[in-house]
Amino acid sequence: MTDKVTTIRSIEDMLPAISQGAIGIACRSNADKMASHMANYTASMNHDDTWLVVVCKRVLLETLDGSCRTPIAGYAHHDVDGYLLETSRRGLYALDNMVAMGKDAGKELLSKAGPGFFDW
């Protein structure tokens, strides 16, 4: 549908919703042979860079007690993470660090926002 696009917004103009554009694939987790095969197959399609920033943003959203009904945008990249209440983190690009940075950033934003920020 690229012929329908009239404007491409930059990150400076408008932040995307948390994990907007990321594609997730779910499969059964029980121990039968097909579930094991599907888990291996879907794991081979994983894009580690995308997965790590999605984890970071989802932990941020969880820490803010956000959902699909809360207008919380976020952008994570190797060098950038922010929202209207801006914060950033730098650390090793690994799962434990991304989780810690997302949680810490969410706590800081909640602290900056103050009580009742999402009560509207």
From TrEMBL:
One of its GO terms (biological process) is heme biosynthetic process. SUPFAM superfamilies: Porphobilinogen deaminase (hydroxymethylbilane synthase), C-terminal domain (SSF54782). It comes from the Eukaryota. One of its GO terms (cellular component) is cytoplasm. One of its GO terms (molecular function) is hydroxymethylbilane synthase activity. PANTHER family: PORPHOBILINOGEN DEAMINASE. This is Hydroxymethylbilane synthase. It comes from Zingiber officinale (Ginger).
